[in-house]
Structures are given as C-alpha cells and as structure tokens.
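Hello Y.,

Per our agreement to keep a running log of every chain we model this quarter, I'm adding this entry. I've kept the format consistent with earlier entries: sequence first, then predicted structure.
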Amino acid sequence: MNKPHIGVTLTIIYLALVAVSLAIYALVTQYVNDQNHSTIVGLLGWSATLFATIALLYTFNSWREQKSLEVIATEAKLIINELSKSSKITEDLFYSFMQDHLESYKSNKSILYNIVNNNIKFQLDTLNHLIYINNSKSDENLNKVIFQHNQSYYLFNAKLNYVSENKDKLDFDDINKQIITAFGDHSDCNFRLRSYLANYALYKEYDH
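Predicted structure for the entry above:
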C-alpha cells in the first residue's frame, strides 16, 4: 500500500490543529468575553508552533525512512549482481562437467562455492539485518526464497559429487537426468531470488 504524499499528510495535520483551535475558542467564548480576539490569536499561534514541531519531526522521519530504503536497495543490487555471476558460473560448471573438461570443472566448482557460501551468504545476512532494522521484523517470504536457493545449490553440488564418484556405475541417461534436473532447479531458484530482490532494489513495498 502506497503512503500518502508528505504534503498531503502535513496539510491534514495543520487543518486538524486549526480545527482544534477553533473548537477550543468556541468553548472558551461561551464563558469569557473575547472582544479583542486575543484568545483566537493565541490559539492560532499555539497551533502554528505545534505544527512547526510536528512538521519537522515528520519530515525527519520521512527522510530517515527514505535513506534506509536507499541503503537496502543498494545492498539488494549488489546481491543481484553476485547472483548473476553465480548463474553464469553455474552454467559454465554444468557444461564443463558434461563435456569432461576436468580443469575447468574444478575451477568453476571452486569459484561457485566461494560466491555462494561467502559473498552471497554474507550480503544476504546484511540485507536481512537492514530489513529487520527498517521494518522491526524479518521478511519471511524472502527467507523462504533464500532457503530454496541454498537447498538447490547444495543439491546440485551433491549430485555433481555423486555422479563424479560413480560414473562407472551409472549409465549416460541416468547421469544426464540427475545433473540436468539439479542444474535446472538451481538456475530457477537463482532467478526467483533475483526477481524477489529486484523489488527491494526498485523501492517497491511488500506486505510482509
């Protein structure tokens, strides 16, 4: 749900204060003769002073919230970039495995492990912490997508290890089925996580 513009909110607050001042003035003049209208002038002065304080606090809170969203968006963009790298390395790893390019396979496997278990993990922990600070609660939907991504990576990695260790015992079709399925699942989870994070990167709000 979109929040009302700050100008609209402050206008409503000001009109409410003026209405309260007029209501108090109407009540006071039932018991006090205010020929010089000093009471209404004082009440309007009071409402203006109070409004200035409220406007300052409201504007500061809006500015702070905006800055928090900018920090979260920046972190989300960094993670999306790492996930894009991870997606490319996963694809390279898949093809190097299927084509028996051992050196390339080992290199890509090591790079992917470092990206997923170090870079992405650390950045996601940081993002979750920032979201919690800003919203006073975690984004459970994001946590579910992260869990699915991590599980798909570990399954893909486990399948690679299993097939590597049992190539002589498995037929070609079985190898293809296991690796291709695990590769596809991890690629899909990587895409879903990037898509979810894009909402934070673009300042879109979630109903958590």
